[in-house]
Design brief:
428 residues, alpha+beta, Heat Shock Protein 90, 3 domains, five-stranded mixed sheet, two-stranded antiparallel ribbon, 60% helix, 9% strand, elongated, disordered N terminus, disordered C terminus
């Protein structure tokens, strides 16, 4: 699992810019110190300190090279200037800050081990410089105070940076785990919804094929004038229907629960919608149903009726869940062309929304769509239709579904570009 560090992903540019600015500021502080206090020529000071400042942002990408630059610059500064009474040595004050910042950046970006190695190596190098340059130990120019201050401050920064790095790593792992859980939950919800749809398909198709088998196999008894050729053909149809049912049960029967736990319920149809709406009203959510009279006389396939019922059921459930107290309006109508059922479930805004308004949600994204949306989407696309949900002018939310009646309509592989915003009354 990738560890979130300040040198990768989105924060990289801000960290690079911040460290570059800090390095330049410290160089600007370093130059007047070494030139004015220690008498180092400006050109020599610039050649030494400028790479030292640029090494700070470089530490995020090339820590070994940046460390080498820092050490060489610090050693060059100590060797190029003579100790001055009352002033820091072998590191100037800006030089101490540069090395402390370098150790802290390594702790944040690479962990405590590389930072600790650099911290220890820097102390060893400073000790060697002092051994070479100092003639009188214990004097004001010996540098022992400067080294102690650097060692203590760098150690504190190292520890703080290590804690920050550990917290950042754990936060990244937790965020990744939460994303994985959300994706897995959405995937499982999608599989469960498809399983439920497959069961209903099994029920509808099995019923239809049973009727075909029964009518074809009994035709010779019900129609005495039936010719031998027609009787044989009908018997063949009955055999094909029986074989189709057996194959379908082998393919889809595994989706059913075994034993007595398997629910045996009739497939819901359009005439069951009034009871569904009435049940919602009895639960405390006022609901009103309008059904197009043209659907009363129109022959609607059972699978389309079941899908329409489930879409309305899911939409009403989400009104109850996300817009408590808001009335719902259900409109079921025949499309103007007469080839599809159009469903609309609308609710006005509620005074105390459960779900807060948020960014738009795409029905086509199963990792973001809520469970109810998955069911509505799957049932609509199974029939070659589409579904959408979102806010309406003036407040409130609306769920729409378009369910083609023709069985030969190809199953849609994608949805139209209809956004779904999560908020009060949004389906979930």
């Amino acid at each position: 699992m990738a560890v979130t560090r300040p040198d990768d992903r989105a924060p990289a540019r801000s960290w690079t810019a911040g460290t570059a600015i800090a390095g330049i500021l410290l160089v600007l502080l370093q130059l007047p110190t070494t030139t004015g206090v220690y008498g180092l020529p400006f050109t020599a000071a610039l050649l030494i300190h400028l790479p030292q400042g640029l090494a700070l942002p470089l530490a995020l990408r090339r820590p070994l090279l940046a460390t080498a630059v820092q050490f060489v610059a610090a050693a060059a500064t100590a060797l190029a200037v003579d100790p001055v009474d009352g002033h820091a040595w072998p590191l100037t004050v800006p030089g101490v800050l540069l090395l402390v910042a370098h150790v802290g950046l390594l702790a944040v970006s690479r962990g405590w081990r590389p930072a600790a190695l650099v911290w220890g190596a820097s102390l060893l190098g400073l000790a060697c410089l002092m051994a070479v340059q100092v003639d009188e130990w214990g004097s004001e120019t010996a540098g022992d105070i400067t080294v102690v201050v650097y060692a203590a401050s760098a150690l504190l920064v190292l520890m703080a940076g290590s804690v920050w790095q550990q917290r950042s790593r754990l936060a990244g792992e937790l965020s990744a785990a939460q994303r994985d859980v959300a994706v897995e939950q959405a995937r499982r919800a999608l599989v469960e919804e498809r399983t439920r749809i497959a069961r209903e398909l099994h029920d509808v198709v099995a019923h239809t094929m049973s009727v075909v088998h029964m009518q074809a196999s009994t035709a010779r008894f019900r129609l005495p004038d039936l010719g031998p050729e027609a009787a044989a053909e009908l018997q063949q149809i009955a055999g094909s229907a029986k074989a189709a049912m057996a194959e379908m049960r082998q393919l889809l029967g595994v989706l059913r629960d075994d034993g007595a736990n398997a629910p045996v319920t009739p497939t819901p149809t359009l005439p069951d919608l009034p009871e569904l709406v009435a049940g919602t009203a009895r639960g405390g959510t006022a609901a009103r149903l309008t059904v197009d009279p043209a659907l009363v006389t129109r022959e609607v396939p059972e699978i389309v009726q079941a899908a329409a019922y489930r879409v309305v059921q899911e939409a009403l459930s989400n009104v109850v869940r996300h817009a408590p107290g808001a009335p719902a309006t259900v409109d079921v109508r025949l499309a103007p062309e007469g080839h599809a059922i159009e469903l609309t479930v609308t609710n006005p805004p509620t005074a105390s929304p459960v779900a807060q308004p948020g960014a738009g949600m795409d029905l086509r994204d199963p990792t973001r769509a809520r469970h109810g949306l998955i069911g509505i989407r799957e049932r609509a696309t199974l029939l070659g239709g589409w579904s959408s949900a979102g806010p309406v002018p003036g407040g409130g939310w609306q769920v729409d579904a378009h369910l083609p009646l023709a069985a030969e309509v190809p199953v849609a592989t994608d949805l139209p570009d209809r956004g779904v915003a999560a908020g009060p009354g949004a389906v979930s």
